[in-house]
Write a structure and sequence with these properties.
The chain has 407 residues and is of the alpha+beta class. It is built from 10 helices and 21 strands. Helix 2 packs across helix 10. The chain is globular and about 65 Å long. It binds flavin-adenine dinucleotide. Flavin-adenine dinucleotide binds at residues 11-17, 36-39, 43-47, 49-53, 55, 175-176, 203-207, 211, 228, 272, 348-350, 375, 378-384.
Amino acid sequence: MSRAPARVGVVGAGIVGLAVARAVQTSRPATAVTVLDKEPGVALHQSGRNSGVVHAGVYYPPGSAKARLCLRGRGLLRELCERHGIAYEACGKLVVATGPGELDRLAELERRARLNGVPGLRRVGPAEMAEIEPHATGVAGLHSPATAIVDYADVARVLAAEVVGAGGEVRLGWPVTAIARRGAEVVVGSGREEAVVDRLVVCAGLQADLVARMAGDGHDPVILAFRGEYHRLRPGREHLVRALVYPVPDPAYPFLGVHFTRRVRGGVDVGPNAVLALAREGYRRAGFDAGELARIAATPGFWRLARRHWRVGLEELRTSLSTAAFVDRARRYIPELGVRDVEPAPAGVRAQALARDGSLVDDFVLGGDETVVTVRNAPSPAATSALAIAEEIVARLLGMAQQGRGP
Ligand SMILES: Cc1cc2nc3c(=O)[nH]c(=O)nc-3n(C[C@H](O)[C@H](O)[C@H](O)COP(=O)(O)OP(=O)(O)OC[C@H]3O[C@@H](n4cnc5c(N)ncnc54)[C@H](O)[C@@H]3O)c2cc1C
């Protein structure tokens, strides 16, 4: 085991960065921990703008970091919520196959889920589906009763309070603009200010590749930002969905498809779609950043992706431009849904890593070295998995990594 670092810095006060900060304090209480974030509050990007689903491990290839860390993360998250009185509701999820053409994919999903050890999983037919979700229709389904809902911003706020309570610092309004090595130290700069640490972890979400490169990490994978737009069921129509209703996902894409999500504070959201955003934090359709556009255009992997998947990209754009198209897609699962049953809800933007060959990177990816660890890909279910991802990063950072088990 290497010498314990006296000072650890974390870039990013999203759920992953805060979980890492907390895990460092738990395993090395004497370490001075500083979390640095450019925003005035915690969880203002992905961690505060997502579906709020605690995944049970249904989708992920057995043996992947996602499969392993989602299962462990869910358990740790549930304990944390219990300990702090954070609302956590195991409302269950129904994955719906709408026609015979989807049955093979549903069977593959079931196979994966069983290998992953998803608790309580059941294959259900139309009659049972009607008991679980009376307004959903399909030819077959998978029911995962352990899938839950939570507000990840609540979780992030509790983690930040724990970090501060244990003597750490969460420095907000502190955009990291430079990272340099000075001997064994790492100097993190924000304009004229600096923070000097012995180890640094970069958990910068939508800016992950840009901040990692400041630290001398490689160019790839790059981040593409995909806006996920939601609608919300209008009051009076919320009875259409009891808990969580999901499509059978297309394995060619890392996104799960438009679904229905009951929120832990009430209300039901429909979405998100996945539209390429022309700004890293492009929450609005009109959001546009010339620099980001130039970066996308100069990325060879992007053109490979576009050649392969332009049809799907256009279809996603159609659901962005037309509420009727959006509702049409969702109506496949809840046929009673009409355009007048929904109203717009705030969007989120996903950070999705793109490899040089034009493939969207499915699994979690860490980069960096022994001094600076960079989180290069932490898409869904990284909120569910955050506490387990943090354990692995801390093991690596503090020289306790298990051979061959890193994400
Ligand atoms: C629409 C949507 C739905 C999702 N649904 C789910 C779900 O239901 N369940 C699930 O498990 N996961 C879900 N996810 C994924 C999940 O939200 C993310 O994987 C997770 O929040 C990633 O956390 P993070 O801390 O890595 O990133 P973020 O929460 O994005 O945090 C990164 C932080 O880094 C900061 N930062 C960036 N650059 C700098 C800089 N230069 N200097 C200082 N600070 C910087 C940002 O301000 C930000 O606070 C969803 C994501 C989206 C977008």
